[in-house]
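In the design runs reported in the main text, the only information available to the sequence generator was the tokenized backbone. The following block is the verbatim input for one such run; it is reproduced so that readers can re-run the procedure and compare outputs position by position.
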């Protein structure tokens, strides 16, 4: 996912739902990680728990 670091905006989907939409650097900062791949993993974990409700 190295190329994602060079784009203006990232949109992540899970089951057809938007789970993240922002600047790559902002997402990394918000999720307190150092790569967009780790953001993807964390958003997946976060949304998996919320779908259990």
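Verbatim output:
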């Amino acid at each position: 996912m190295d190329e994602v670091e060079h784009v203006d905006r990232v949109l992540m989907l899970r089951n057809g739902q938007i789970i993240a939409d922002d600047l790559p650097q902002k997402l990394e900062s918000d999720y307190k990680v150092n790569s967009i791949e780790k953001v993807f993993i964390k958003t997946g974990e976060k949304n998996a728990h919320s779908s259990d409700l």
